[in-house]
Amino acid sequence: MARSTSKDAQDLFRALWSAYSATPTNLKIIDLYVMYAVFTALIQVVYMALVGSFPFNSFLSGVLSCVGTAVLAVCLRIQVNKENKEFKDLAPERAFADFVLCNLVLHLVIMNFLG
Amino acid sequence: MAFVRAPSPFLLVLVLALSISAAITATTTVPQPISDHHRSAALNLFAPSHGSFPSLQDAYEALRVFEILGIEEKHRVSTDTCKVVLENLSSLSSSLKDLFYALKVNGILKCKVNGEVFEGIASRLNASISDASPLPDLYYSIGGLVLIKDQDSNVDVLLADATGTFQSIKAQSQSDGKWRYSSDKTESSAYAAGLAFEALAGVISLASSEIDQSKVNTVKHDILKLFGSIEKNDDGSFYFDGETVGGHEHQDSLSTTSSVVRGVTAFAAAVSGEINLPGDKTLGLAKFLLGIGVPGDAKDFFNQVESLAFLESKRQVPIQVNLLFKFVLQQYFFSFCFLFFSANVTLDLSWCRVTIPLILSLPETVYSLTTKGQLKVRVSTALGSAAPPLVVKLVRAFSSGAKDSSIIESKELQYDKRSGLHVLDGFTNNVDVGTYVFVFEIVLHDSHSKQVYATGGQIHMPIYVTGIIAVSNAEIGVLGDLGSVQTKKALDLAGNDVVSFSANHLQKLRFSFQLATPHGHVFKPHQAILKFRHEIKVEHVFVIGNVGKKFEITLDFLGLVEKLFYLSGKYDIELTVGDAAMENSFIRLLGHVKLDLPEAPEKAAQPPAPPVDPYSRYGPKTEITHLFRTPEKRPPQNLSITFLGLILLPFLGFLIGLLRLGVNLKNFPSSTVPAAFALLFQLSIAAVLLLYVLFWLKLDLFTTLKTLGFLGAFLMFSGHRILSYLASTSTKLKSA
């Protein structure tokens, strides 16, 4: 029984992995970026849990910058994905420009809040 | 004598001193006649700015003051002022007031004015006199005509209808002796009455035919009625109260009084027959005017000096000639006064003028027994000119404390020709140290002077006599329980020696001394005080009482223990003896006493805190220790550094992942222009991020936003170019 479940998990994992390998490279780059941002946020939360939330504004700005940039990257991924019919007419360069601009605004606010 | 509690004798002495001074000031203040102080003040007040005066009225006031006080200043300003005068007199648009004052100034400066100018003005003034004119206009017109009459006798200025004008002015009089300004006003004022009297005097002198005597008599009654409303001060000075009438500026008491004086003296000079003004009223008016001292305002100065001059009627005519005439006429016309024209003066002069007040003043009121001076008295008119021959009698002198017993009686003062003062020698032999009231009386030599001058009866003057008080027989000692003398020392209060004692609370301290005046009488000073001062600067004051000449105080320490706050230790003893009449008042340290007092019980009063040094209020205050909020606990540095490293791990993972994915830069444009833009795009993003780092480190939001604006624009531009190029290339690829 355990063997079948673990084998099933392995099979599932392999299937997912192969399906994922089919995605275009630019989407993979975006996914990688999102993972990076989320991991950074997690490490900050762990740190806060360890030392306390004294400069709370700094903690918030750090975490929210990661989360925010991740969210913007997800939006970019949605817009750039060719399989997404909704954004068929939107040029990926335009989506990228939006991504850059929104990130810059986000980081201005984050820097102000950082203290 | 046992000591008494400090406050009550103090109060008694204070009340006594105040009542003495009040009594002295209630009798008379000493009015001083016009002196050189006035002359120098006049030079300052009336100095024209740049050689000319602001207005003709100011010019007239200044010139008249200089004329009365005998100051030779007018030559400097005469040319400029004459120009202004001539301008005003010739101009057809000058107002009545300007013409009036121009004529007044001309009367003093005697500028060369053409006869035709006078005739023109006279006809103008005559035309402006009508029944309906208000009082000030009538005053200026009539006054102007009188002045023209004096300055140019050829011009015809006589009034056509003098009686009618007289009636119209008289119609404004009210029952209380005051006058209205015009028939449509209801309020009356004494100032207007003064103007009316002067105008009526002018009408009488300009009348071509004699004015009915009964009308003149009614005006005389009006004057007496007006004087019925005069105000009186305690010191015997009389004045007319200031008033405000609607539509006219407020007149204070000085200007009202001087207007009435001007009017009444002008009227008295113009009419025949006496105006029965009592002499004390004119003396009272002079006292009021002199009581102002030296006024600081030019208008007040002019009013004061001119009123005094009118009260004095300075125009001198040989008295002997007057007497002869009066004697001859009185033979035939009993109590009928005759108008006397003098060849020298241009104004009418009558003996029936208002009485001239004589002022008795003392050059000094404080006399010292040590210098033994003479008593000096000066009698002069209010303007400071010489009085007629007279004798000053000292009726009586009494001490201000004992009004009933006179110290000096019925002495005559000798007249010293050199100084012009009346002196009394040797009065210091009879008087002792203290305050006195001397009662003087002026006795005129001849009966004619008695009618001309007002002397004011008995005049009370305060005199202060000071002297050196003999302090002697000072003894200080410690007494035992039952009064037995345990230690006693004599002190020479004139010297500097100090004594030293020690005493405990069971003993008494006795101090005594004697005071005597130069004549050997009892002298009770205002202050005879013994002061005990402890080392910690706590002070106790005791008043020393006296029996006759001997001043004695006994301090029973048993009763004083509580008052002294149970403080043992060394006390300084200080004696103060002082009085205004004492030339040798002193404060002297007598010595020290070491007091041994019992311990203070718990409920005893604490001694007062030593007096705070007043300068310490402005010195630096105590340092404030700030209590800061305890800072938050920060994590240890190593932990923070570790996590800094941990944060960088995902970034490294990201970079490694990118490499594994096979990231390449193949899409980077190869041709130069797009390549440049691509590079610029990357660089501008990097610049913005760098700006953000600087913003975090040290910049403020405003500079950041400004710079961001520039960089953002640049970024947008380059980004747009490169991205549109990339988009176009990718669509070309797609379509291809």
TrEMBL record, chain A:
Keywords: Apoptosis, Endoplasmic reticulum, Membrane, Transmembrane, Transmembrane helix
Domain of life assignment: Eukaryota
Pathway, per record: Protein modification; protein glycosylation
Transmembrane segments: 32-50, 56-76, 96-114
Compartments in which it is found: Endoplasmic reticulum membrane
Keyword flag Membrane: yes
GO biological process annotation, one example: protein N-linked glycosylation
UniProt subunit comment: Component of the oligosaccharyltransferase (OST) complex.
Family statement: Belongs to the DAD/OST2 family.
Function, in words: Subunit of the oligosaccharyl transferase (OST) complex that catalyzes the initial transfer of a defined glycan (Glc(3)Man(9)GlcNAc(2) in eukaryotes) from the lipid carrier dolichol-pyrophosphate to an asparagine residue within an Asn-X-Ser/Thr consensus motif in nascent polypeptide chains, the first step in protein N-glycosylation. N-glycosylation occurs cotranslationally and the complex associates with the Sec61 complex at the channel-forming translocon complex that mediates protein translocation across the endoplasmic reticulum (ER). All subunits are required for a maximal enzyme activity.
Name of the featured protein: Dolichyl-diphosphooligosaccharide--protein glycosyltransferase subunit DAD1
Organism the protein comes from: Arachis hypogaea
UniProtKB/TrEMBL annotation, chain B:
Location of this chain's protein in the cell: Endoplasmic reticulum membrane
UniProt keyword annotations, A-Z: Endoplasmic reticulum, Membrane, Signal, Transmembrane, Transmembrane helix
Pfam family, one: Ribophorin_II_2nd
Domain (Ribophorin II N-terminal) ranges: 34-312
Keyword Transmembrane helix in record: yes
Broad class of the protein's primary localization: endoplasmic reticulum
Domain Ribophorin II C-terminal: 628-728
InterPro entries: Ribophorin_II_2nd (IPR055375), Ribophorin_II_3rd (IPR055374), Ribophorin_II_C (IPR056790), Ribophorin_II_N (IPR055373), Swp1 (IPR008814)
Keyword Mitochondrion annotated: no
Pathway listed: Protein modification; protein glycosylation
Subunit relationships: Component of the oligosaccharyltransferase (OST) complex.
Family designation: Belongs to the SWP1 family.
Protein's name in the database: Dolichyl-diphosphooligosaccharide--protein glycosyltransferase subunit 2
